Q: What sequence folds into this?
């Protein structure tokens, strides 16, 4: 009995050990099972997006930056609806192995067909095993024609759509027709600070806000210009002439509102300028200024204390705290060796200084360079002008209601103002600093062979002739739509620094 008892105890102990091991294995398997399930869920959710690490995708990262960026964009499956993914059986993958039919456009890229229900986990597993670098679905999407207005002279407005008319370079424009599919400036007010504005012009009147205007020469609420003062009317047309009304021209922001602020038709004091630039600054979003000190190359001038105070009030309090956007003509004094830095209005950090390029995308013979220039925009040059509104009848630049000879940075500036109106409609929460930053990041590099291009500390290319390049409406609106506001402004004082050197006269 004793011996039997010892033997039974040992067998029991062995059985308990086996049960214990089985329980441990069962627990271990049960722990792994959720991990495997979670991994499958992750596969199903992500597919095979492009890695941010070039070592994970050496072939894809050997493509051009534009192609690489496109792969990063289209391989992000969060942009596709469930129905789009379920209706797609053909994908493009990048792999050093033969995965199917070559695309014929990119080396080591292949068309692969797979059942939609299995596609996401299939490509995720292939990527996990290092077989493919990236995959994206060939989702079919309906494209729509770009909206173009039916205005009589739109085909002459090469600054909006340059097809090579007048022997210009096709595409040397502000890339705006695509942006018009979604935004046209609705709800945005552009204040045209100038020599007046013919508010009853047939191509301006429907966009005009008579309750927001003012005449700082006669101190009344009617900025109707005197005969021959057509500068403001022409600038207004470039910015926001009514589009698609079967008449005349279209502005860059054809549905934006206009407010006329007469100022430069007479002599102005610091107080007049300050009042004009702060006029109803919760209602006016953009102040467009195609004027400044003399461009004779000998004049160093700038705003007075009240005008600077108006700039600051616009930036920190205007637009209900978001800040007004102020555009300023860089100047037309290149032939006099003038530099936009000498103009304290265009040189203010609160303003966007705009210079001009011609229909070939080159520097005009008048557009002033300067470290202060932020952006360029198309304007007259090489014998081809800008088509826009004129004072009606024979009281303007021509004997008609429109002119094709407007130009200078006076035309480039309201063109930028109109583009900014599109940006503000796309995202009404943009601050004045956001607008400047978006312009910097979205501008298109023109005249790429010019020796003046350099890269700044933030990695952006710039040129004193062109700023950060030509304004690109389509790109700017696209960035604006999903823009994250910049952080608070930081002001730092270095204190007094003594440099024992003589400043050269040249």
A:
């Amino acid at each position: 009995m004793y011996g039997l008892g010892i033997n039974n105890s040992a067998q029991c102990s062995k059985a308990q050990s086996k049960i214990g091991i089985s329980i441990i294995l069962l627990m271990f398997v049960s722990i792994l099972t959720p991990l495997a399930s979670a991994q499958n869920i992750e596969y199903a959710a992500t597919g095979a997006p492009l890695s941010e690490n070039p070592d994970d995708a050496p072939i894809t990262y050997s493509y051009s930056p534009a192609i690489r960026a496109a792969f990063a964009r289209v391989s992000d499956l969060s942009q596709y609806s469930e129905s789009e993914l379920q209706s797609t059986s053909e994908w493009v993958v990048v792999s050093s192995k033969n995965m199917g039919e070559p695309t014929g456009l990119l080396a080591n890229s292949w068309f692969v067909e797979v059942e939609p229900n299995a596609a996401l986990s299939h490509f995720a597993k292939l990527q996990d095993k290092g077989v493919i670098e990236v995959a994206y679905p060939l989702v079919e999407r309906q494209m729509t024609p770009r909206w173009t207005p039916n205005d009589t002279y739109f085909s002459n407005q090469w600054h909006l759509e340059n097809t090579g008319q007048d022997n210009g370079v096709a595409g040397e424009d502000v890339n705006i027709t695509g942006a018009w599919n979604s935004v046209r400036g609705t709800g945005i007010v552009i204040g045209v600070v100038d020599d007046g504005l013919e508010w009853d012009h047939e191509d301006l009147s429907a966009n005009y806000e008579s309750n927001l205007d003012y005449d700082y020469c006669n101190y009344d609420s009617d900025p109707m210009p005197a005969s021959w003062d057509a500068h403001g009317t022409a600038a207004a047309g470039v910015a926001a002439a009514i589009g698609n009304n079967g008449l005349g021209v279209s502005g860059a922001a054809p549905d934006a509102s206009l407010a006329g602020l007469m100022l430069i038709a007479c002599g102005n004091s610091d107080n007049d300028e300050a009042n004009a630039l702060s006029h109803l600054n919760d209602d006016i979003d953009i102040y467009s200024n195609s004027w400044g000190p003399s461009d004779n190359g000998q004049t160093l001038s700038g705003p007075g204390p009240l005008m600077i105070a108006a700039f600051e009030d616009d930036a920190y309090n205007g637009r209900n705290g978001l800040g007004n956007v102020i555009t300023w003509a860089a100047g037309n004094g290149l032939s006099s060796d003038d530099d936009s830095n000498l103009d304290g209005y265009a040189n203010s950090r609160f303003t966007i200084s705009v210079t001009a390029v011609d229909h070939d995308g080159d520097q005009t013979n008048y557009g002033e360079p300067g470290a202060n220039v932020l952006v360029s925009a198309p304007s007259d040059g090489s014998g081809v002008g800008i088509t826009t509104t004129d004072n009606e009848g024979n009281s303007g630049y021509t004997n008609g209601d429109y002119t094709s000879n407007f130009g200078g940075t006076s035309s480039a500036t309201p063109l930028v103002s109109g583009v900014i109106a599109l940006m503000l409609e796309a995202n009404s929460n943009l601050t004045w600093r956001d607008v400047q930053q978006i312009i910097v990041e979205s501008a298109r590099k023109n005249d790429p062979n010019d020796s003046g291009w350099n890269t700044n500390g933030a990695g952006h290319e710039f040129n004193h002739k062109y700023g950060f390049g030509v304004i690109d409406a389509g790109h700017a609106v696209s960035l604006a739509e999903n823009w994250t506001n910049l952080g608070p402004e930081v002001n730092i004082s270095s204190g007094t620094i003594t440099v024992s050197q003589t400043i050269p006269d040249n």
